[in-house]
Structures are given as structure tokens and as C-alpha cells.
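User: Could you go from structure to sequence for me? I need the amino acid at each position, not a summary. C-alpha cells:
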């Protein structure tokens, strides 16, 4: 142990004789270790965010969504009659699936559209959702004031509404919304509840769009179907022509008892809809559990790719160390000759130079770890600058930009010892050749070196 401590002391003394050169050589290792930890932290943060968004959809849920076939349109005929394009989930689909899925413990069907919502002189465009009481629990919503919809509201087709926090702020900035009237499509509804703020859900490819739950208005499903969406038909007028679409349900969410039942039940849902829709692709089946497994696989691939890219920095740093140590051997040729003349063995010379490279890379690794641990703080600072000085609003930002602003890097604990270990190993590997070159010097020739 005494010999080891003495060797390390000599290595540090030799490196401190050329502080600037040693510091610059160390930078390659510092930034290599920092980049490994930082990139893995960003990868973990992005992956964790994606998994949380998928989990928000429910790990035991199966979501069936109506989807307009891309090759079908509606238009007015020459007689002025408008053909109605019918697609998506029907009441028959709902009835058949509810009866043929024994593993289902709960189901919620919704119909939604964007409408002008008004209170006195204030108005806004909001997503009006016709739903049942189970919608709140299935979408992890929480009531802030008042209550949510009840079975009695649905059965009586009551004119009641529950509004989200964003709607409450826009239409009732001062007053308490509970008990106040709300106008939707020329009909008045009484506000019976206000929901708490909730984070937006993620968009899932082309199957499920992202949803801002803070601009919703919830009314009983039967009330929606009878007073807003009669017969499921929506009429639109564009450029002097009419179009009409008929959709009964935008989405039906089934909840099963166990995650083990999710995949088999989803297969039954797909087979049933394939048969009832005759192969018409006017629906999509989203299974969050499958997406969660895919997200976990992507995280592993993402970490491997990012780790490999960052590892290149360590490789470059190692090459820099070897280059400097070879130059050092040339500068210290006479010193090596004196040590050999005084009885030092080749193994002692190798040990001396390897210890210097290990101390150099190890110190760089420790500094890189310290910088890597600051990644979340630096990332928060960057987001603060972007939010307050770069962009005015996130409304027009891309999904990638919003994901960046919502993400928080998460330090992977295992990356700290791994990155430090690789930094020391890099110094060891790239220090072997210079050490061997120093040990092979002829003592007599080394003493003659000036």
C-alpha cells in the first residue's frame, strides 16, 4: 500500500509540473464522461415522460377510436341532396363488444365535438364531451369544486355541465361557476362541477390525438346525442357546398381486470370489429400496454445509441492522452535513463507512466461526473430562457418542442460508475503503449539524451 501511495504521489507531482498541458489533456475525458451521463439522463427523461403519457391512458385499458377513412368524402349531389358519410363506432358495436368481452370490468363511450361555449358576454371554443360518470376515473380526472356527472343525469338527459379549469378561468374569471348557466348550441346548461388542472395527453401516431383536458366541457352522453348530435349527423358548409358526416361514438374505452387480459381482449376486439365493419378501416384500436412495451424497448435502443455516441468522446480523449504521454516519454528520456541506472526495473517504469495516465483520466472522470450531475439544473435553466426570452407561446410549437419544454432529465444512477469506470479504463488502455515505449529505452542511450 505504501508503494502504491508513493507511486500515485509521484504521478501527481509529474503532472503538476505541466498544469496547463495536463488540464487540456484531461478535457477530453471530462467532456466524454459528462456527455455520457448527460445524454443518458436526457434519454431517461424523454423515455420516462413517454411512459408516463402512455400510463395516463391506462395500462389495463383498450381504446377503440372512430377514424374517417382517408379515401372517402361527401359532397352535394346535383339535386341539392347531401349524401351522408357514415363511419366509425356504432351502437351495435358498443352493444356487441359489451356483451362478448367477459374480462371487461368497465367501459365508457363518448361523443365529442368542438363548439362555441358562452356565458353572458364571454365565449370560447371548447371541446364538448358527451360521456358517462365512468369517464372521470378512466381518464384520471379530479373534481375541484362541485361534482361530476351522475347516472341520474344520464338517465334523465339533464341539462347539466361540468367544466374544466381552463373553461372556468375564461368564462368565470371572478364568479363561482357552480350553479351558473352555460350556453352550448343555443341551449342553456347549469354548471354543477369544476375539474382540477390536468396535464395534456400524448398523441399516439395517427390513431389517437393529443388532448388538452383543461378546455373541456362534459355533459351527459344521452343529452349530447339528443340535443347536439341528433342522429349522429354533423353538417358542414365549405366553399358553397355542404358535407355531412354521421358518427355515433368517437371513442369507446374498455377496462379489463388484469394486465394479463389486455392483449387477448384486444385481439377479440379487433376480430369482432373486422367482422362487423366488413374490413372497412374506419376505426383504430389503441392498446396502451403494447405502447408501453414498445416505449421500453425504444428506451433501451435510445440509451445504447446515445451511450455509443458519447463514448466516442472518451475514445478521442484517450487518443489525446496517448499522444501527450508519448511526447512526455521523449521529454523525460534522460530521467528514465537515470532511474534505470539507479536500479529501477522496466516494470517500475511501466508502473510510473500508467499511474500517471490513470490519475489523469480518473481526475477527469470525477470532474465529468460532477458536471454530469448538474445536467438537470442546466436543463432547467435552458428551458427557463427558452420559455421567457425565446418563444412567446407554446401554442404553435411542434410536438417535439413541447416535449422538450415538458421534459426533465433523469440521472441514471448506473451511468455514474459506468462512465467513471470507462474513463479510468480509457487511461489504462491508452497509457500502456507509452509506458512500454518508456520501459524499452536503452539506459545508456537514455543517459546520453539531452
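Assistant: Here is the amino acid at each position, in order:
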Amino acid at each position: 500500500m505504501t508503494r502504491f501511495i508513493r507511486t500515485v504521489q509521484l504521478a501527481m507531482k509529474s503532472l503538476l509540473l505541466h498544469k496547463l498541458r495536463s488540464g487540456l489533456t484531461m478535457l477530453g475525458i471530462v467532456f466524454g464522461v459528462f456527455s455520457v451521463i448527460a445524454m443518458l439522463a436526457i434519454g431517461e427523461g424523454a423515455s420516462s415522460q413517454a411512459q408516463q403519457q402512455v400510463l395516463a391512458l391506462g395500462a389495463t385499458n383498450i381504446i377503440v377510436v372512430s377514424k374517417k377513412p382517408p379515401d372517402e368524402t361527401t359532397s352535394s349531389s346535383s339535386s341539392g341532396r347531401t349524401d351522408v358519410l357514415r363511419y366509425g363506432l356504432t351502437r351495435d358495436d358498443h352493444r356487441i363488444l359489451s356483451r362478448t368481452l367477459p374480462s371487461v370490468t368497465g367501459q365508457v363511450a363518448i361523443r365529442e365535438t368542438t363548439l362555441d361555449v358562452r356565458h353572458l358576454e364571454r365565449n370560447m371554443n371548447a371541446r364538448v364531451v358527451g360521456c358517462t360518470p365512468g369517464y372521470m376515473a378512466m381518464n384520471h380526472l379530479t373534481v375541484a369544486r362541485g361534482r361530476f356527472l351522475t347516472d341520474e343525469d344520464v338517465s334523465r338527459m339533464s341539462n347539466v355541465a361540468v367544466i374544466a379549469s381552463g373553461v372556468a378561468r375564461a368564462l368565470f374569471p371572478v364568479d363561482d361557476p357552480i350553479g351558473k348557466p352555460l350556453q352550448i348550441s343555443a341551449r342553456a346548461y347549469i354548471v354543477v362541477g369544476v375539474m382540477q388542472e390536468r396535464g395534456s395527453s400524448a398523441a399516439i401516431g395517427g390513431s389517437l390525438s393529443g388532448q388538452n383536458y383543461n378546455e373541456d366541457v362534459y355533459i351527459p352522453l344521452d343529452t349530447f346525442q339528443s340535443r347536439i348530435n341528433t342522429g349522429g349527423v354533423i353538417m358542414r358548409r365549405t366553399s358553397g357546398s355542404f358535407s355531412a358526416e354521421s358518427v355515433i361514438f368517437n371513442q369507446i374505452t374498455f377496462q379489463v381486470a388484469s394486465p394479463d387480459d389486455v392483449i387477448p381482449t384486444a385481439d377479440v376486439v379487433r376480430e369482432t370489429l373486422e367482422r362487423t365493419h366488413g374490413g372497412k378501416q374506419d376505426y383504430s384500436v389503441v392498446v396502451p400496454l403494447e405502447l408501453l412495451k414498445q416505449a421500453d424497448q425504444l428506451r433501451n435502443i435510445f440509451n445504447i445509441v446515445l451511450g455509443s455516441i458519447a463514448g466516442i468522446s472518451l475514445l478521442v480523449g484517450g487518443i489525446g492522452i496517448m499522444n501527450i504521454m508519448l511526447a512526455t516519454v521523449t521529454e523525460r528520456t534522460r530521467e528514465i535513463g537515470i532511474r534505470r541506472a539507479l536500479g529501477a526495473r522496466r516494470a517500475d517504469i511501466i508502473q510510473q507512466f500508467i499511474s500517471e495516465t490513470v490519475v489523469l483520466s480518473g481526475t477527469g472522470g470525477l470532474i465529468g461526473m460532477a458536471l454530469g450531475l448538474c445536467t438537470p439544473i442546466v436543463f432547467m435553466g435552458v428551458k427557463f430562457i427558452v420559455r421567457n426570452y425565446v418563444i412567446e407561446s407554446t401554442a404553435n410549437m411542434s410536438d417535439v418542442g413541447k416535449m422538450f419544454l415538458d421534459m426533465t432529465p433523469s440521472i441514471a444512477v448506473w451511468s455514474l460508475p459506468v462512465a467513471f469506470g470507462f474513463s479510468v479504463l480509457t487511461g489504462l488502455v491508452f497509457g500502456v503503449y507509452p509506458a512500454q515505449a518508456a520501459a524499452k529505452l536503452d539506459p545508456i542511450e537514455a543517459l546520453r539524451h539531452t
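One structural detail worth keeping in mind: The two ends are 35 Å apart (CA to CA).
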